[in-house]
UniProtKB/TrEMBL annotation:
PANTHER family the record matches: NODULATION PROTEIN U (PTHR34847)
UniProt name for this protein: Carbamoyl transferase
Recorded family membership: Belongs to the NodU/CmcH family.
Residue intervals of the Carbamoyltransferase domain: 90-297
Species in which this protein is naturally found: Roseofilum reptotaenium AO1-A
Domain of life: Bacteria
UniProt feature coiled coil, ranges: none
InterPro entries for this protein: ATPase_NBD, Carbam_trans_C, Carbam_trans_C_sf, Carbtransf_dom, NodU/CmcH_Carbamoyltrnsfr
Residue ranges of domain Carbamoyltransferase C-terminal in the record: 336-502
GO molecular function, one term: catalytic activity
Length: 504
């Protein structure tokens, strides 16, 4: 039996394919078309990709199709017709949007956990209210819905508000990450606080057209770059405080917390939530947003059928070949070049699942100078000056360089940089003194661990700059061809593809 889970979504369409034992492939469609946050705008496009994948993976027609959808929405008739016409032995199952997000709890080793699924979309599980956030209790390998925390006054402070502020500051509803980065340069504003607490913002409704966005943004007076940063800071602070006060009401359920949905990409809130409420463990998957919807749908279905969960090797579920060994001479050459300030485009094995570079499609450089950070972030990637560059740090040395609260293999938390980190690795320390760290174990990524270890033996710093292998506005490179095109078209110095190195 094979399983094909599909999530069209309003953005970030994706497909996951599995058999009874393993996740075979998770494909973020933006990478297939090299179009950031791509969504299926035509059913025919979806059908073509499914047919292509079935052919390439040699899947028979005994398939269960699992479709993610918002509760209250019906499946498009053309999807049903396509499946039953081409795969008459197949069956179709449906999973609600926020249940898909929440189902990443099945990948944890927790006996129980509180689960918060929150984004800018939602479901009509509560009559007459389309909620953007749901609370669940995961216990005895079952996911039990509790309620929508809008009952606790939380409505409004969710992913939709972030989208509105992103539109105000960057003319892009999908630029919440930029808002988070800019916040470090601002200060709290009572003026913006009053606007956020205004009824126009506390109950945002559901329409997301340009006229509504412009109307809401007209209440926000932003005249200077400092105003923009302070708007971002005020949003981050109020969002985080509201999240903490809301989840305090559910703290008694468990010492373990699972955060999913697009809002779980807010590393500042994730970290402060753990500090304030003292959770023993917090799990955030590598793909908590809509880019992981189809995988979540598949996990939910397996649980609903009391099936054993398929082996899911997060985060490396994308396209690509299995890792090839890197020779000693290549490691030596890369170490020498990087210590001399060269930037490496690092392409290894199967691509990461999720929006962050996690060591298979990464731009890597030593973190010792701000000049090199500028080269990586602004000259090569064409990003704005205020955006931070994250570090990847050897897990065994992480606590020597950062105040680490939780393991962070997927860049899900921030950590305060210690004084020696600010001195010796300034390129990965943001304006607020923190870093969005990736903690790297040898078992998780032996090739990158070996490279960093060799550099550490020479310069005493177990850290590299690690940012995604793409230019601003484009998806992370997926195939070898994508990485080769990136190498040719940018100022990056070195390209490594599975141990084969190209040097300009």
């Amino acid at each position: 039996m094979h399983y094909i889970a599909v999530a069209e979504n309003a953005h970030d369409s994706c497909i996951t394919i599995a058999n009874d034992c393993n996740i075979i492939l998770h494909l973020e469609i933006e990478r297939f078309f090299n179009h950031k946050r791509y969504r299926f705008n035509k059913s025919s496009t979806l059908f073509s990709i499914i047919s292509l994948l079935i052919h390439e993976l040699k899947i028979n027609d005994n398939i269960t199709f699992i479709i993610s959808r918002h509760n209250g929405e019906k499946l498009y008739p053309e999807i049903i017709e396509y499946i039953y016409r081409n795969f008459p032995k197949s069956q179709i199952e449906e999973v609600q949007h926020l249940d898909c997000h929440a189902s990443f709890c099945y990948l944890t080793n927790f006996d129980d956990a509180l689960v918060l699924a929150m984004d800018g979309g939602g479901d009509y599980r509560i009559p007459l209210h389309k909620a953007n956030s749901f609370i669940y209790h995961y216990k005895d390998k079952k996911l039990n819905f509790i309620e929508s925390p809008f009952n606790q006054g939380f409505d409004g402070f969710d992913g939709k508000l972030w989208a509105i502020i992103a539109y105000k500051l960057f003319n892009d509803v999908n630029a919440a990450g930029k808002v988070m980065g800019l916040a470090a340069y601002g200060e709290f504003s009572e003026q913006y606080k009053e606007v956020f607490l205004n009824n126009k913002f506390s109950h945002l409704g559901w329409v997301f057209d340009r006229e509504s966005l412009d109307r809401l943004c007209s209440y926000l007076d932003v005249q200077t770059p400092h105003d923009a940063a302070s708007l971002a800071f005020t949003l981050q602070k109020m969002y985080t405080e509201n999240l903490i006060s809301t989840l305090q009401n559910y703290r008694h359920y468990s010492d373990n917390l699972v955060l999913t949905g697009g809002c779980a990409l807010n590393v500042i809130a994730n970290t402060k939530l753990g500090e304030a409420l003292g959770y023993k463990n917090i799990y955030v998957p590598s793909c908590p947003g809509d880019e992981g919807q189809s995988l979540g749908a598949l996990l939910y279905y397996f649980s609903s059928q009391n099936k054993k969960m398929p082996i899911t090797n997060l985060p490396y579920l994308g396209r690509g070949i299995e890792n090839s060994p890197i020779s000693d001479s290549i490691y030596k050459k890369l170490t020498e070049l990087m210590l001399n300030g060269k930037v490496v485009a690092w392409h290894m094995g199967r691509s990461e699942t999720g929006p962050r570079a996690l060591g298979h499609r990464s731009l890597l450089a030593i973190p010792t100078t701000m000049e090199l950070k500028t080269i990586v972030s602004e000259k090569i990637k064409k990003r704005e000056w205020f955006r931070p560059v994250a570090p990847v740090v050897l897990e065994e040395y992480a606590s020597d360089w950062f105040d680490v609260q939780y393991s962070s293999p997927y860049m899900s938390f921030t950590a305060k940089a210690k004084p020696k980190t600010k001195e010796l690795a300034p390129a990965i320390v943001h304006a607020d003194g923190t870093s969005r760290i990736q903690t790297l174990s040898r078992s998780h990524n032996p090739e990158l661990h070996e490279l960093i270890s060799r550099i550490y033996e020479i310069n005493g710093i177990p850290i590299l700059m690690n940012t995604s292998l793409n230019c601003a506005g484009f998806p992370i490179c997926d195939t070898e061809e994508h990485s080769q095109n990136f190498f040719v078209s940018t100022d990056v110095h070195i390209l490594n593809i599975n141990g084969k190195v190209y040097i300009k």
